[in-house]
User: Fold this.
Amino acid sequence: MNYSDLLVSTAKKRKSIVCLGLDPILDKIPIQENNLRKKIFIFFETILNEIVRKNIYPSAVKPNYAFYAQYGFEGLYALQDVISLFQKAGLIVILDAKRGDIGSTSLAYAKECFGFFNADAVTLAPYMGYDSISPFLKFDQDKGIYVLCRTSNNSAVDFQDLVTDGSPLYIKVAEKLCAWGSGNLGAVIGATYPHELEEILLTFSKLNKKVPLLIPGIGSQGGDLKSIVGLLKKYSYLPLHRINSSSGILYAYEKVHNVQYNIAAINELNKLNEEIEILSEGLC
Amino acid sequence: MNYSDLLVSTAKKRKSIVCLGLDPILDKIPIQENNLRKKIFIFFETILNEIVRKNIYPSAVKPNYAFYAQYGFEGLYALQDVISLFQKAGLIVILDAKRGDIGSTSLAYAKECFGFFNADAVTLAPYMGYDSISPFLKFDQDKGIYVLCRTSNNSAVDFQDLVTDGSPLYIKVAEKLCAWGSGNLGAVIGATYPHELEEILLTFSKLNKKVPLLIPGIGSQGGDLKSIVGLLKKYSYLPLHRINSSSGILYAYEKVHNVQYNIAAINELNKLNEEIEILSEGLC
Assistant:
């Protein structure tokens, strides 16, 4: 199935556009287990079991490569385990790896992400241009690709806001994505910048393109959910997009007393799904 | 030792500014060995032994992460082996990984590259700005960082050449590197674009900064060695920089008859070292 169609059908099936970030932070995982790979796996397996038990799902999951790779091979084995675990449960897995290199090297990265790790989608960096993206586009047309467009961090302004011929760099990236893509090419846009999100949505709308968005930055980074959902509804088709939350869900137990981490996480996921459902007025 | 000082002293000791790219391409490795990790290790160990035997050294080595990661865990074990092998022989190891993410995630990548893999230097992507670079700068001030500035591939023009206030994006990146760095922050500039290299060197010169350059793109990509060395001599201090060659050296045996791959590789490395020495007129 085409990646955009998969996104839309999954959102409708799960009644969710939430992407659950799967970023292990060892100090925050409340499990007594010395084996790092096991500790990470048990943490996410317990959360997944609660997802299944309560039938409250996210609409994709997103492990960030760095959070696993920092722990060396044990971490990377855990990444492989976690991808496989969530895929077997029918969830879309977006590998957040922000790869990008010259053509032949990007092909090797596509083999890593789509071949070896078997992710359903991947995040890429745009700086090196089309030939760093195209090996991923050609590798498997059912796989998804999200290119960094306007990121959620403070220093996003350093280069992404530089203006050429009246348009900032992130709009130039957005325009190129429209030229290069065909349903499987999406964009990463931080929830912390609703004005920039609106500009980008307007660009896609003018060019008559439906570009799947991956939107991190709500919760601890401060993005406003109401504005984001409002903009997605106004300019696009909500079920095509994913709003990401990582630590706000995974480590929700830290903010409530005497609640097991898996229960606290799924309560938080449920809350986010419901908030978006109310804001979307039944569009999902 | 400060990374810039290490570059200069190593160049003088080795009489070389060549960085040898260590990119395994299984089909081109002429060794009968089914175990992938062993095959890659034996290939590079045999080449290193020839380097030591002939006392003809490169002045750094650069494994590209993608070429190992495409083969999964066996490839990544080989990467760890290869880094350790060349470090033990006293060579600077630049891990070409082109990482970049928001601050907390970039710190995890710094732990991966500098901690787990113990590389001496790393390549990074600039798109997300300062807070994606700073965790690497702060991790260990003796380690080196090369940020993509003007890359060697055809599609580099897509974004890197966009002009803001009279300057292309790669000059904006070059200026920021001068503002952020202090001897351990370098730039990647492709040898295929000597005009752009000159502009960047002029920028560094005007800002009175010595920024170590990592220059891929000679050989199969078509960069002209004479122009590159001429520009480095004119505007900067040659021993601070590294000119990279990967497949041109590693797989040199393909172009000569009846010569073992290790001997062909070191002959090619020697040729490149000598060409640069002649062009540099004894500056190395």
